[in-house]
Each structure stands twice: as structure tokens, then as C-alpha cells.
Amino acid sequence: MTNTTKSKSTQDFVPIKEIRDGVIVLKSGGMRSILLASSLNFALKSQDEQASILMQFQNFANSLDFSVQIMIQSKKLDIRPYLALLEERYKEQATELMKIQVREYIEFIRTFVDSTNIMSKSFFVVIPYDPPIMTGSKNPLSGFLPKSKTPTEDFDKQFQEYRSQLEQRVAVVEQGLVRCGIRSAELGTEEVVELYYKLFNPGETEKPIQIT
User: Which is it for the CA torsion 156, 158, 159, 165, positive or negative?
Assistant: First the structure.
């Protein structure tokens, strides 16, 4: 391994330039929006309902003239905040009988979670928009900008124009998911930052929670 490689920080390997107004701006100039989608218990549907859902999803997928990425985040359910809340309730009980019942319930929950692999799942749809790239331009957003304005003003204007193109794609995906019986919501800046932080720092959920 060379010294140059050693000196690179983790951020150098992350393709994200910034997260702005809920939009991910990549170092390559591409833009991404993320939808959080609800789940659908397909197995509980009747055969007719299942056939209808499959048909709607097929029509939705065939109607897209751009690619999307469907991501499923699966992680072990962190029950510790709930246990911490129960510990607080235990301290508030006035009678010994109620304390015993709360303590037994706490131990039941802890034992059940330790012996059973309980997973939580989140579903996301990543929607891309890649602006046209001008040959010889370092920044894909800079090739279409008038030279009279400052780089910041130019970028702001072009960002809003390209963002409107991205939002049109987001609306198409949202409408298609609704027809399949799936609700969705576009992630904001803080939610996107939190999502990527957890993706790049999976060990954070393993840190102990202090119970006062």
C-alpha cells in the first residue's frame, strides 16, 4: 500500500459531495432522491388482490423510462430504548406487587429478544437524475451556466433546474407506488444524513445505552 493511499480519509471513498434540500449531490454531478416506502403483506391478500398488485407493479415498472434502485435495510431490532423506558416505569411503581410484575415483564422481554432474532426492515426507492455532461468540464453542472454570474449563483440556479427534473421523476414513482397500494414519503436532509450515517456506521447500534 502506498503512502498516498494511506493518507486518504474515509470521506474520499464516499461518492457524495453534499446533501442539499433532501437531494444527494454526487461528486460526479449526479443527483439522487430517496423515498421511504411502506410494506405490504402480500401473503395475506386474496389471489385476486395478489394478481392485481402484480399487474399494477408490472405496469408501473414498464412505464418508467429511467432506472430506480430498490433498497431493503434489514437490521436487528434494538429493544434497549423500550427496556430503558420500562426501567423508569419500574422505579415509579408505588406497590411491591406492581414492581414485581413490571420486573417480570422486563425479564420476559429481555429473554425473548435474546433467544429470538427479531429483525426490522425498511424499504427505500432511490431515484436518480444525471445531468448531461459537457466534454472538458470538470463539473457537470457548470457546462450550461452563463459566465456572468458567480460560481455559487450559477450552481444554485442549475441545481434548482435539475432538481425540478428529479422531482418530476419522484412524482412518477410515488404515483406508481400508490397504484400498487404502497405509501411513500420523500426523505429530507436530516433523514438522508441519518440513513447514510447508519449505513456507514453499523456498529453504532451496538453501543450501550446508559440507564440512569
Answer: positive
pTM of the model: 0.69
Q: What is the pLDDT of residues 148-197, one digit of tens each?
A: 455 566 677 888 889 999 999 999 999 999 999 999 999 999 999 988 88
Q: Residue 198, Cβ neighbours under 10 Å: how many?
A: 14
Most distant pair of Cα atoms in the chain: their distance: 77
Length of the chain: 212
36-41-45 Cα angle (round to 5) = 135
Is residue 137 within 8 A of residue 143, CB to CB? The reply is yes
Residue 93's H or E segment, with its range, is none
pLDDT tens per residue across span 28-56: 889 999 999 998 888 899 999 999 999 99
Can you tell me whether residue 34 is helix, strand or coil? strand
Enter the C-alpha cell of residue 25: 449531490
